[in-house]
Amino acid sequence: MPFPQSFLDELIARNDIVDVVGSYVSLTPKGGSFWGCCPFHNEKTPSFHVLPDKQFYHCFGCKKGGGVINFVMDIENLSYPDAVRFLAKRANIPVPEEASDGTEKLRRRMLELNRDAARWYYQTLQAPEGQAVRDYLDRRQIHRRIAVRFGMGAAPDSWDSLLRAMTQKGYSFVSAQIEMVPQNYQKLTDPEQISLMEKLLDIMDDDDDVQNVWHNWDED
User: Fold this and answer.
1) Bigger pLDDT: 105 vs 5
2) According to the model, what pLDDT value does residue 113 have?
3) Which phi-psi region, left, alpha or beta, contains residue 164 (left: φ > 0; alpha: ψ -120 to 50)?
4) d(CA 115, CA 87)
5) With pLDDT > 70 as the criterion, what percentage of the chain qualifies?
6) Strand order in 210-218's β-sheet?
7) Cα–Cα distance between 39 and 134 in angstroms, integer?
């Protein structure tokens, strides 16, 4: 959802561009404005100009310029929405979408859950219960550095291990409207199965979500 203009006006007013830029660049006052060496390219003579009355910055060397949001986008390599959130946090201003839109909050919580689940699978591979999978990797001549590089993990011989682990981390699957396992399932895995999980990360183009794709290898 777009940010309300009233919110953006308050955000800019409470994030003075001189203060924000000054936390990254050493600025020197001169003639009602501020000058410093540009943080976006190498230079010895300051050509980076900040105008407090217009809340605007401009570099005469690399030609970058804009307001405080543009500066944060460039210096922190953030998207526009994330730069707005960055400045909102800096000024302790609640972001409207996060205060009123439960969908955005749930989306972020799901991303956190996805990352924590990936870490848990990886940690399981390193734990004693992951020995069978590590032996399998050795037989396939898959070295540890490869497993680490591709975020490989192990799935235990238990249908609710991940559910219990994530619940202990504070995730509430009822309130998040997530139905992870059917209530009438007693067992979802084969006792003889060794399951290896490989996590492949792919950055989504549109809204910077992280998509996790899992492949399973079963040993007969």
Assistant:
1) 5
2) 83
3) alpha
4) 25
5) 74
6) 153-154, 195-203, 210-218
7) 47
